[in-house]
Amino acid sequence: MDYAQPYSKERLSGRGYFTPTGSIQGVDLGNVDMMKIEFGIKRKEHFSARRGIQTLDRFDAFGSQAVWTITCDEFVSPTLQYAWAGTPNANFSQTAATNQSIVFTAGVTTGSKKGATFDLGKYGLYDASIAGKVEGYTADYVIDRAGGKVYIPLTSSIADAATFTVLASWPLLTYDSVVALNVLNRNGNLEIHGEDDSGQGKSLTGSPGVDAVPPVRYLFSMACILSADDSGDFKVDDYRKITIKATATAAMTVKRLQ
Q1: What pairs with residue 31 in β-bridges?
Q2: What are phi and psi of 134, to 5 degrees?
Q3: Hey, which end of the chain has fewer CB within 10 Å, N or C?
């Protein structure tokens, strides 16, 4: 490739694929909006000493520890174990129900208590109410229908330690479940793709097919240890992102399209 070629310029998006050691099944790490590699070069200074003066005459690189930093912003079931550095559980399922009674019996620890919040144990409630009572922060109760909690305001007419019943319905729901932070290092092979739209697709006949897209510009492949330092920030004004680190454990191969 020469300097005037379109591919001499690079503005790339990325994709990462990780295959754990001993498995033939890989995982697509999702949309990669930033990827970078630090060579981790280790250097040693050498000084020439003459008449009480030391002068640096060598500064040799003698080692490297390549580390990829990959920032992803898609969170799907196959990648949650990587985002949370853990192992997947069976899905948590909530069965649907209609007009069910959830009773909080009288007592100091189990009954109603003004200013307290109680767990309904269900999520996504609808048709939820306490019979004969008015909902509101200046009334008798407030139900967090999404999170399955009921709050008894200080102004409530529900007496402390009195029994009360929440009547509610809830839908069928399925949650992913992960045991977090019990797999901090994952050995395997990582393949990173750098891609853009600077050229047409290529086919075996030399003419682009109807579904041809520009081929991957870069192919990086290496044995590595995959880990994540945190699971990203939850921010209302930005998409959540996770940063995954891949530390090379063998020589990395770099392929670049001509």
Answers
A1: 15
A2: -110, 135
A3: C
Q: Which domains does the chain have, with CATH numbers?
A: 9-43+58-89+178-256 (2.30.110), 95-174 (no CATH)
End-to-end, the C-alpha distance of the chain in Å comes to: 5
Helix (H, G, I), strand (E, B) or coil at 121: coil
3-state secondary structure (DSSP) of residue 198:
coil
CA–CA distance, 188 with 23 (Å, rounded to integer): 9
Residue 145, sorted as left (phi over 0), alpha (psi -120 to 50) or beta, turns out to be alpha
201 to each of 30, 192, 196, 204, how far by Cα in Å? 22, 19, 11, 10
User: Measuring CA to CA, how many Å separate 227 from each of 38, 53, 125?
Assistant: 16, 46, 37
| C-alpha to C-alpha distance for 37 and 35, rounded to whole angstroms | 7
User: Quick one: residue 29, left, alpha or beta (phi over 0 = left, psi -120 to 50 = alpha)?
Assistant: alpha
What global pTM score does this model have?
0.83
Location of structure tokens 């003419």:
207
Model confidence pLDDT, tens digit, residues 218-254: 999 999 999 999 889 999 999 999 999 999 999 999 9
Amino acid at residue number 115: G
* Pair of tokens at residue 80: 């949650």
